[in-house]
Design a protein that fits this description.
By secondary structure, this protein is mostly helical. The chain contains 14 helices and no strands. The chain has one domain. The chain is globular, with a radius of gyration of 20 Å.
């Protein structure tokens, strides 16, 4: 029962992440705010728009942290069964490279409804793939060393953002966007997102190994969430280092306006807190609310499949099909989101069954 509970809460959490991501992408295709909205410098004309957009800020950190946690757990279990460490590491690197390939081909083209191929772009799936491949190289480190690396990367990244460079599109821009900052080539630079992936591999030691009971896992997860939240509060109230947006006063909307592209240090702290806190909530829930949370469990069991399918569905309906493409408001956004979630339940359920029976190595990596 303990192992089932552990993985059930992981599926719930991944399911919540992809469901919120679906909301953000439904907004991208149906919400007229995207006619003028600039993701790199977000402004909002209403609290509902602010909340709709910011709910998705959990998604990328959730992807990276849970990916790091599952890489650690998979490595631990495979080596315990007799697989050599080098083989387990190489398999993980291959999976990471496979994700990069998916980004450059399927994902990039799916945003336009497969109207064009866009190879010169790196997105979240590629960032996850690169982070997984890098994590494979250090996965044998003891957890204090991986934690130290994650914390150093968190702390150093705001300083790296101050490096001057030519942003006109030359090699300097490519290098900086690949690793540090955000732009058209890449909104998900490797350094801050790899830090989250590495942190996920650290908390996995507690979740899957060191904390023996659900009660201890919940208690310690809440403590980690509290520490991360307080760290973010301290950084935010300091106004300076680690902040990319100023705020008017404590508790105002602007106080909670933190940057995602690239992620500010406040973003890293508060999203870590939220993800670990919600994971603890799902641990507490366990299988008691399984019927109610069944859709999240289904989505979370094949989260990558959800990602790969939901974008082309939205793009083909809205952008290629001409149905309310950036012509509505929050009403159209939420109707489109609910319809998307309803469609994805049977698709994800069917794919999960196919994947469970298949021995195809590519299919099993999805």
């Amino acid at each position: 029962m303990a192992d089932t509970n552990r993985f059930l809460y992981i599926d719930y959490m991944r399911g919540l992440v992809v469901a919120l991501m679906g909301l953000d992408h439904a907004s991208y295709y149906f919400n007229s705010i995207w006619l003028w909205f600039e993701p790199l410098d977000p402004l909002f004309d209403s609290i509902p728009q602010f909340l709709t957009r910011y709910s998705s800020y959990l998604c990328a950190p959730g992807f990276l942290m849970l990916a790091g946690a599952m890489v650690y757990n998979s490595f631990r279990r495979r080596t315990a069964r007799g697989t050599s460490a080098r083989k387990a590491q190489w398999d993980t690197i291959q999976r990471g490279l496979f994700l990069v390939l998916l980004q450059l081909t399927w994902v990039n083209s799916s945003w336009s409804g497969f109207a064009r191929l866009r190879l010169a772009h790196i997105g979240i799936i590629a960032s996850i793939g690169i982070s997984i491949a890098l994590l494979a190289l250090i996965i044998r480190w003891r957890w204090p060393f991986r934690l130290a690396l994650a914390l150093v990367l968190f702390a150093v990244h705001p300083w790296l953002l101050q490096i001057p460079y030519d942003a006109s599109g030359g090699w300097q821009a490519l290098v900086m966007e690949a690793f540090v900052t955000a732009g058209d080539f890449n909104k998900y630079p490797v350094i801050p997102w790899f830090a989250l992936c590495t942190f996920g591999s650290v908390i996995a030691v507690g979740w899957f190994q060191a904390w023996p009971t659900n009660r201890i896992r919940i208690r310690n997860s809440l403590l980690v969430a509290l520490v991360a939240a307080l760290a973010g509060l301290a950084v935010r109230m300091g106004h300076g280092y680690g902040n990319l947006f100023a705020y008017s006063q404590l508790g105002s909307v602007s106080f909670f306006l933190f940057q995602k592209y690239p992620p500010s240090l406040v973003h890293q702290c508060w999203t870590v807190a939220a993800i670990v806190f919600l994971s603890a909530v799902f641990m507490a829930v366990g299988d008691r609310a399984r019927r109610v949370l069944k859709p999240l469990e289904i989505y979370g069991s094949v989260a990558l499949f959800f990602y790969l399918m939901h974008i082309p569905i939205l793009a083909l309906v809205a952008k290629r099909g001409g149905l309310m493409y950036r012509a509505g408001g929050l009403g159209a956004t939420y109707l489109g989101w609910i319809a998307l979630l309803a469609v994805m339940v049977p698709l994800c359920y069917a794919f999960a069954r196919i994947k469970a029976r298949s021995r195809n190595p590519l299919l099993r990596m999805i």
